[in-house]
Amino acid sequence: RLHLVTWNVGTASPPPDVTSLLQLNSLGPTMDMYVIGLQEVNSRITNFLSDLAFDDPWSIFFMTVLSPLGYIKLSSVRMQGLLLLVFVKHVHLPFIRDVRTHYIRTGLYGYWGNKGGVTVRMSLYGHTICFMNCHLPAHMENTEQRLDDFEKILEMQFEEESIPSTLDHDVLFWFGDLNFRIADYGIHFVRESINNKRYNLLWEKDQLNMAKKKEAFLQDFIEGPLQFKPTYKFDLYSDVYDTSEKKRKPAWTDRILWRVKNLCQHASKEGEFSEEEQTISVTLNNYISHMSYGISDHKPVTGTFGLELKPLLLDPLVTLNPEGEWSAEHDVLISYSAVPEFPSSAWDWIGLFKVSFRHANDYVTYAWVEDDEFSSNKDSKQVYMSAAEIPDTGGEFLLGYYSNNMQSIVGISQPFQIQPNRTLIDKDLTQEETSWMQKPDNLASHDEF
Q1: Domain architecture of the chain: domains with CATH
Q2: Tell me, what's the pLDDT at 46?
Q3: Is the distance from CB of 283 to CB of 308 less than 8 angstroms?
Q4: By percentage, how much of the chain surpasses pLDDT 90?
Q5: Inositol polyphosphate-related phosphatase domain: which residues (predicted)?
Q6: Helix (H, G, I), strand (E, B) or coil at 201
Q7: How confident is the model at residue 444 (pLDDT cuts 50, 70, 90)?
Q8: Can you name the residues that pair with 320 across neighbouring β-strands?
Q9: Residue 442: predicted pLDDT
Q10: Which residues contact 282 (CB under 8 A, 6 or more apart)?
Q11: Residue 415, burial from CB neighbour count under 10 angstroms (0-12, 13-18, 19+)
């Protein structure tokens, strides 16, 4: 289950609550993956430079919401105002490989990153998936420029030769502030149609719908029905369309589309397509806007999808476990084994993580798989971790094997308990008691005042 968000946040700070945006109160099964594409994240020079060194406020905000629920930030990519975040449940980490990011500028002839696309791609259970967050040129008359820019973004190549081109991925999701407008109709007709919920009257004049009928490179993209109000342009903190002097005509600028490669190949052939051949299918369960969010002049749009995958990968590359009972009072051992074809590196490491860790670098401590090796045989290896590195308070943790070649965690243990260091805890309690007993002597009595 995949939940995809696109939102032009208009340089605003995160809202107080995103429960409905992320459907966290949904009665159905929880999501396996969240993909969040933002446009117009505050990118003033001072903000941008500080965000390069640290996570930006939006990334921190979503990590704070999702990490306690068992999601980690798998990847992120930012190009000035464009930000793309991918979060996944721990259980899927060993089956996600070859995570790569890319971005391409199209604004001001490619010199300025205010428009363009940011991309995250991966192999998920052996299937190639690509997510592309775009911000295309604005204004009614720039349809051709929007199409030209998107075609340029589609032609982007990843640096590694082994990574397929964008259109060669099994599934490609395309979303963002695509800025397509409603042509021909006047503002009064558009607003009346919206007020009467007769959105279908506007669909045939939506510039993206019109382009999909003419442009070959768009025809394989699928979109759910636009059964929600146009998401642009609203007065801030309201559900009232633009009352400024410009009175912008409402439009469905914020969109989510997808493309399944197998279906495209099948469409170009004759004959029926057997279900046995189809190893991946995408089902749209929900395509809606969220009117309650008013921090910008756009309303966020979400798509909830079911991805049905025939797993091409069934076993994790690395299996790892804590040896024996772990305690903060003594050194410990980690045992792990890798499949024969695993491309290990001297730069691989095993991290000790809190169960609610936020991303791959959010470890408590780590051990190098080569430098800290304790023993080795043909079936498994053991790595040593010093007691000095383990939190004295103990708690619930898990182990993750980070592959330098694959730039991702490729093995993860079940959660386990670390016993606290009783010696230090007893010592702290003794110190507290001592200081408490000494306090009355240090305080002046009422008589002395």
Answers
A1: 2-309 (3.60.10.10), 318-431 (2.60.40.2840)
A2: 57
A3: yes
A4: 76
A5: 1-313
A6: helix
A7: very low
A8: 336
A9: 41
A10: 171, 258, 260, 305, 306, 307, 308
A11: middle
